[in-house]
Every structure is written in structure tokens, then in C-alpha cells.
Amino acid sequence: MDKDTVDVLVAGAGPTGLMLASELALRGVRVVVLERRAEPDSTIKAGGIGALASEALERRGLGPALDAEEAAAVEGMNAMKKSLGVRDGPPAGGIRRVGGHFAGLRLIDQTLQREPGRRMRGVQQQSLERILAEHAASLGVEVWREHTVESFDDTGERVKVEARSPGGSRQLEAAFLVGCDGGRSTVRKQAGFDFPGTAPTLTGHQALAEFDHPERLLPLGWRRTAVGMMSYGPTPGRVGLIEFDGPPADRETPVTAAEVERSLRRVSGADVRITALHSATRFTDNARQASSYRRGRVLLAGDAAHVHPPFGGQGLNVGLVDAVNLGWKLAATVQGRAPDGLLDTYTAECHPMAARALENTLAQIALMRPDPQTTAMRRIVADLMTTHPDVNRYFGELMSSVTLRYDLGDDDPLVGRFVADLELTIDGGATRLFSLMRDGRGLLVDGDGVAATQGAAWASRVRGVKAPGARSMLIRPDGCIAWAGRDGGLRPALERWFSAP
């Protein structure tokens, strides 16, 4: 029986777990990820990455990898359209960047948003997991596959974990244990977190398949039918189905081609057969959220902390924001340099964002049901979204979370928001703000020639740059603006988030 001691144990090597482990390793924390699967999960999941999650990855230098995956996805989309004879010319003025959907109602072109550069990316979750796995490995993160958390004991000083592995039982100790192990989280259940919410009422499927007559499933995109909801595309063979006839009898039973085909034929009304099923998942509309994301030395992130229907890849977006919010705070706590109460701000800041996602996904379900009352309400909402750009923009920003603002107790409208990738003038040349945050430190943008001098004592934790003409800002490692150019407020903000120098 082996015994290993690390700083942090992360249960789950999905996107949230890998991102959290990378954020910890970037700051010199020894972290081990325990993953029950022998290989990465290949089942079909989110088809895109939300704006805030995308920006979190870009701040760590992963923008080029995302660009490459998105370009490949666009090629696949175009090939699918060509094979089906679909014509979709570019809009006037440039490339269309669709903003997604709300309850299957199309949102406005992202180039028309108030901050068009802050957009979702068409990157499949499987591709994202590969990018994050490579990123984590480059930082020295150890991922122990075929390791399952069996039990643990929070002693108040450490967390003692018993894990099952192919070699037998393994004893581990860590300063903290973080459950990133999904909606059925073992960590959450064993730690005793409550998980209130709503019960499931429907059965949904996502699948990647081949069909004998794919043209019979047109048009591409979302549509509501007499039975439920269906989406087709945007990549070859991807189909989503929702039936409002109650939850599945057994969610644990493997999804078969026959099951997906029956649902496909019922919802679409098309005479079409599945000739090959490459991947399929089953989902419901239960929406639950832990009241707190921390109990002693055990924390939760991602789906372990909150679950909801999979509309718009919001779960992936919220989970990655959880990871970057928690990562730097947990690292500072482990290393004994966190100001009082820093770790408690994790729940205070991230819980409202997830609650908002739960609320809007439940609202979407209410607009999808195939009954006359829903039809009447849906027509009104669709009309508002079509005729009033501000209404459509509201729904777009609700889904993307780009208007998210943490309550940091400052009435400046910038404080608490996530910073965009601004262009700064440094030493006479143009520099992108995100490129200055790859090392995981905070960033102090000095636009008046004074701020950087005041922040010099925090240089090991906060990078200072002089950028004439820019708004002076203190930006936390997770991209949140903690102070914005107010006389006398910089030092308190530095001490609040990065402790005394």
C-alpha cells in the first residue's frame, strides 16, 4: 500500500479539473489529478466554448491552439453544408459569427454585440480536453488514470484520501481535495454538501451518427416540432433531441443506436435511419447547485458544484471560470500567503454565476415545451428577439456571461468585471493585454505613471507595466478587475487580494 503526499488532489480530469490543476501548477503547487477513466472521455459533449472560458485560455497562451481547432470545425461545417446542398452566403460586411441560441431561438450575429471581440468559440469539448491535457502536462501536472476516490477524511489539517487503482488501494494526503468529478460527484456526496434543485422532467439525447438520408433532417440548426425539440449540425452527423415525456427510466443504461433512432424519428417526423452511431449521451433537465462550494478542506468546481440542461455549453463555460477563480486563491492559501478570507470569496463570487445559468436553462425549457400555451409565449419572445436588437442582445449576453460582474464592494462599473484583451502601448509598441498574463500573476496596468511605482512591493505576485493613455487597473490572475484608477484605492486592493508585501 503506497502513501503519497501532495499539496492538492483534484478528482476528475475533465476540462474543469485539468484547468484547475494547470492554474495550481503554474504557481508552483504540486497537484495530482485522479481520473477513474483509463482514456479521455470520447462521448459527444459541448460544441463550443463560452467567451469567458475562451478568454481564460487565451490569457494562458492557448489562443493559437483554439484558433486551429475552430478553423478545422468551420471546415467541417462548410463541408457538411456542401454535401447537403445548403447555401449560406456570408453576410454583408464580413464573416458571420453566430451568437448561439436561446431555447432554440437564434441569437444575433456576434459581430453586432456591444463587445464583438468577446465571443464564443466553435471548439468541441473533446478538442478542448486534448488542448488542456497538453497544457497541464507541459506544467508538470500528474494525471493518474484508473484512480477512483473511494473515501476521505478531512482532519482539519490535511485530507487523507483512499483511492482505488489497478494496483490496489492507495493512500494519499493533501492540504486540499477538490471535486471536479461531475454531476454525480463522489467527493460532493461523501463530503456531505447539500445539492438542492429541481427534478428531471424530460429525456434528451446528443449523438454523433451517420444517416441513410441526412438531407431529410434539414434544415440545419434548432427547430421545434409537435413532439419536442431537435438540432441538426453544425458539424457533420451531430444531432440533439429533446422529448417532453418524462425522465429516462435508467440513466445508467448505455445509449444504443436503436434508442437514438426511435427518438430521432419521433421528434423529426422524418423517415430516416441511423447507419452508424459514433457517440451518444442521454440527459435530462434537472438543475441543482451546492449551497456552498467549500466544506473545510474539501471544495467543489464545475458540474460537481452545479448541473443544468446542456444548452449553449454554459456548463463548460461556468466550470472553467470556477477553475480560474479558485486556482490562484487556493495556491496562495496552500503557500501561506493568502490574505484572510481569500478562499471564502470563491463561493461568494462563483455561486451567483452558476445560479444564473441554472435559471436561464430552466427558462429555456419552459419555452421549448410542445403545448399551446408555450407556443403562444414562444411567439411573443421570438418576435421581441427579432424586432428589438437590445432584447436579442440581452439574451446573448445572458448566455455568454460577458456582462458578469463580481460584487467587490466598489461602485466603479469596471471593478468586478472581466477584462477584455485590450491593446496597450508599452515602450512605444502595441502589446495585447492577455499576452502579459501567461505567468499567472496579477497585472497592474499603469496609465498615469504612478500606479506601477506604488505596486512595486508586490512584484513577485503582480506584474506592473506602464501603458500611457490606458486606464490604470489592477487585474487579478483570473482576469477580474480589482481596482480601476482611483486615488488612494490601489494599496487596499493589493493588500485585499495579494496580502501585505
Detailed description of the structure:
It is a single chain. The chain is α+β, with helices and mostly antiparallel strands. The chain is built from twelve helices and 24 strands. The strands form six sheets. Strands 1, 2, 5, 6, 7, 8, 16 and 17 form an eight-stranded mixed sheet that branches. It has a five-stranded antiparallel sheet with strand order 11-12-13-10-14, with helices on one face. Strands 22-21-23-24 form a four-stranded mixed sheet. A hairpin with a 2-residue loop joins strand 19 and strand 20. The longest helix has 22 residues. It is globular, with a radius of gyration of 23 Å. About 2% of the residues have low confidence.
Concise overview:
The chain is 32% helix and 24% strand.
Strand content: 15-25%
Distance between the termini: 43 Å
Most strands sheet? 8 strands, mixed
Shape: globular
Structural class: alpha+beta
Mean of pLDDT: 91
Parts with pLDDT < 50 across at least 5 consecutive residues? 89-97
- Contiguous helical run count: 12
Rg, Cα atoms, Å? 23 Å
Helix content: 25-40%
The beta-strand count equals 24
Supply the key terms.
about 500 residues, alpha+beta, eight-stranded mixed beta sheet, five-stranded antiparallel beta sheet, 12 helices, about 30% helix, about 25% strand
